Amino acid sequence: MDLRKDRIKVSVRIKPFLNCQDASTACLHIISKEPPVLLVAERAQTYVFDNIFPEDVNQESVYVDAVKPFVDYVKKGFNYTVFAYGQTGTGKTYTMGSASQKSKDSVHTGIIPRALKQLFEEVDNSNIEAKISISFSEVYNEKVFDLLLKNNKSPLPVIGFTVQGLSKKHVKSVFEAIELLETGNSNRHVGETKQNLNSSRSHGIFTVYYTTKNGGKEISGELNLVDLAGSERARKTGSRGNTFQEGVNINKGLLSIGQVISALSTKSTHIPYRQSTITSILQASLNVDNYITLIACVSAKMEDASETLQTLDFAHRAKKIRCNPEIIAKYKKENPGIPLSTPLKRPSSTPFRTPAVKQHKMQLLPVINNDNSHSLKNQGSITFSTSSSSDDVQQTISPVIRKYMHQMEASLKGRFESVIKNSIRPTRSSPRNKENMSILEWSTLQNEIARIVRKEMAQFTLEKSVMVTSSPIRDDEALKARRLFNNGSPDDAEQETLGNKPLETVQDCFKVPELPVGKCKSKKILVSPTDIETVPRIDTRRSLRLSLKNTNQISDQDTSLNEFTRSLGDGDSHKYNSRRRSVRISKAVEPLSTLKRNSVKGSNDSPFTSHSKKVLTILNKGTSKDLEKLHTIGCKTADQIILFRALKSRFNKIDDLLKLPGWSQKKYDRFVNLNLLHRD
Ligand SMILES: Nc1ncnc2c1ncn2[C@@H]1O[C@H](COP(=O)(O)OP(=O)(O)OP(=O)(O)O)[C@@H](O)[C@H]1O
């Protein structure tokens, strides 16, 4: 069994727009179908899920792709849980099919009735003897109610993780089962809010108990279909009094589900099931020995962007959970009565996963087999450490990372070899001095190796943060997404820089090497591959750097970006760009006198105009590093600028900065003043 595939399945369903006006300002875009990648324009963030269902998807496709294959596990004696999560009014109840089934139009039939139909159909067709029972409960205001008992107003006690006295009704046909679903729905707490006229005010749990016999042995599985109440903001729902209190309890329950998901995804030893009623009673369902499908329902409306991001973050966390029901069942069978240790001990033939990346990083450090540099030279090769766990690690990491590691290993090997060759020079010294000489060379070598490894690691961290889980996105999909922002036509950036080059990753499709996917964690990881040669020497003394700075003047002819960045200190001497930020900035924004001296010969531009043009060039073509040299531009703003010009338009004048989301007049004024620009 392939362990790597055994994750909780996470699908996202986007609610259709009610009017076309909203559609033009959608904050969600599916930029690739295989693998399914969703772009949240608001935060320039991409997510990869098992399925992403667009607005126009029908109920049948959702069921077939997200749920149908797993219902069979219930018949094999496993537990399977489907739960719908999301903001209020995004279609959870509609998707689950826990709303009234009175509509005769089968197009709208949701997951619950379809799953019941599948179970009964297969039982009928194969003449298997199976007993199917149903329970339906709700968690309302932190209390559990039995929905199959009419007019039942008294809550059921929860002891440990079980609801006491919950009724289980035996059903013989799909019609009887759907009737119970109807009865339960009619008893469920619903209310009207500004966001949903028929808002579920409780979490609904519909459970199908399936028992059959196989060779005289009883097999029982459970199918849990959970329609969670929607997360809501009192300001948006306009809830008051009772409804407000319901909202508080709903959010509390959802928060604790989020904490359980986080704990499961990080393989924490403590899973906080007892924090709320819903997590207590879902303890048996939200567990790694169950098959789980999460359907995150989201709205693509711009005004709902923050709730949508919250739902997607939740779904993304859930995606990290690994559940291995078959392995756990095997373990329980082989070790009856022995409780499962946490984290789950896997059979020795199956490798551990968690520390894979770290271990591998360590392995990338070369082991130089020979102490004698002369023999190294003769040997001309380096052996890389391959610890006994290497194979395990190789098997458990994602293929994309593995491929990257191979490339990295090959490139490192080549680099080390050339560094070693260059550091070894024929020695004319006596045998006594020879030893000193090799020590001296070794320290240089160490510096070089440290420099290369550090850079490769930074690059690796960047690659890892950029959706390493996704395989290359198809060219046409990426272009489609890109053009979406340009009213259907290719933009300058696309034509200028991508040319005919195939688009390979999410980054490529926006031509931004440092496209921030996820939060920009620190500046040091934003290293573009081409910067590898520009790493500062570790042993360069400050005095040397400063003296080099003084020889570093702006050329009169500098107009292109490269020349300009060189004038700022980057391109001139690749080896010595580690001078302090203050020095760099003082070069970036030159004093007026220098500008006058250096203004382009024969040009009528005033020093201010030429300075503004240079800043404009940086805004339009500068890398993240270049942009950060300007006052008031930090790494996040730099990324925002890069993204803006890639997705929307270039900057024709400095004023265009005001078009950036979040740029107030005050912020713009500060930028203009501190960078000594004059207003356009
Ligand atoms: N994909 C869809 N196609 C057609 N109608 C939809 C779709 N999704 C939702 N709706 C409609 O939107 C309305 C709100 O949906 P629903 O009640 O399922 O939301 P919800 O997420 O369950 O909300 P709450 O959390 O408040 O209960 C319903 O009228 C439903 O029919």
Automatic annotation (TrEMBL):
Keywords (A to Z) from UniProt: ATP-binding, Coiled coil, Cytoplasm, Cytoskeleton, Microtubule, Motor protein, Nucleotide-binding
Family statement: Belongs to the TRAFAC class myosin-kinesin ATPase superfamily. Kinesin family.
Top-level taxon in the UniProt lineage: Eukaryota
Gene3D superfamilies: AF1531-like domain, Kinesin motor domain
SUPFAM superfamilies: P-loop containing nucleoside triphosphate hydrolases, RuvA domain 2-like
GO cellular component labels: microtubule
CDD domains listed in its UniProt record: KISc (cd00106)
Pfam families with a match to the protein in the record: Kinesin
Keyword check for Coiled coil: yes
Principal place of residence: cytoplasm
UniProt entry tagged with the keyword Nucleotide-binding: yes
PROSITE patterns named in the record: KINESIN_MOTOR_1, KINESIN_MOTOR_2
Compartmental location: Cytoplasm, Cytoskeleton
UniProt-annotated binding residues for ATP: G86, Q87, T88, G89, T90, G91, K92, T93
Protein name per UniProt: Kinesin-like protein
InterPro entries according to UniProt: Kinesin-like_fam, Kinesin_motor_CS, Kinesin_motor_dom, Kinesin_motor_dom_sf, P-loop_NTPase, RuvA_2-like
GO molecular function: ATP binding; cytoskeletal motor activity
Domain Kinesin motor: 7-321
